[in-house]
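Journal club side-thread
Mid-discussion, someone asked how the predicted structure for our own chain would compare to the paper's figures. Pasting it here so we can look after the session.
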Amino acid sequence: MLAATRAFFAERGVLEVDTPALVHHAVTDRHIHSARVDLPGHGAPLHLHTSPEYAMKRLLAAGSGDIYQLAHVFRGSEQGRWHNAEFMLIEWYRCGQSMRQLMAEVATLICTLLALPADTPVEYLRYAEGFGRELGIDPLTVSEAALREAAIAQQLDPGVAERCDRDELLDWLMGAAIGPRLGREGLCFVHHYPASQAALARLDTADSRVALRFELYRNGVELANGFEELADAGQQRARFESDRRQRAAAGLPVPAIDEALLAALEAGLPPASGVALGFDRLLMLRLGASDIRQVLPFPLDCA
């Protein structure tokens, strides 16, 4: 599968790159937890990257053109049969491509790596349509109280639900109630996420309530997360500052903003779409494995 991945991108003229796993900044996203590394002789603490995204965007801004990477990444506080603290991503960026064009390419790669027929059904489902179809609610207009009731009805502990804010309730419902029902007959792309969950995606100019962000599901498993990339340094700084305020309110460490990324955006990021695809989860699906430890030569408890 690694060889097939490299062949796929070589055939399309996409350059393989290699960026550092050890970086100077933790991510600001309150739901992602970076691993700190105290390296003797280097002063301030460093961190293991949770994604090669920031470094790859700096390469894009420097004129690299289309690029991809097979990267080992590291995240804390994620446990379970689909999670290992260290895992592999296939991450790539396509200059000049729209979100829809990138989703089509992701589907082609998935069918290649999972040995699926070329005519495998592919569903493109708007985020709001998914909530309407599966839960009968509109996630863009529903009240937080109604979201909380829906989550409790789907077996979220009432005490936990009471502590969740709007986006946490939406995330839980997508992960526990909607996502597991998607992609049973083929592939399902969920797209146009709420603007509050845009992360590093740009907003839809036709509807600023939603972002040009997508996720991919196969057999109820979330495999990929992609964006039409935000290139506005000012907007991205505002999002990072919002992340920092949320982390502070939650009592979490508040990392400094990665100024090198913002400088790259200021210098000029070409119009591009990018995606991160979980390689280990693909391998699980290909082999019919029920636990990620079955496909890792050295899971964390054996490393």
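Post-session note: The first helix runs from residue 2 to 11.
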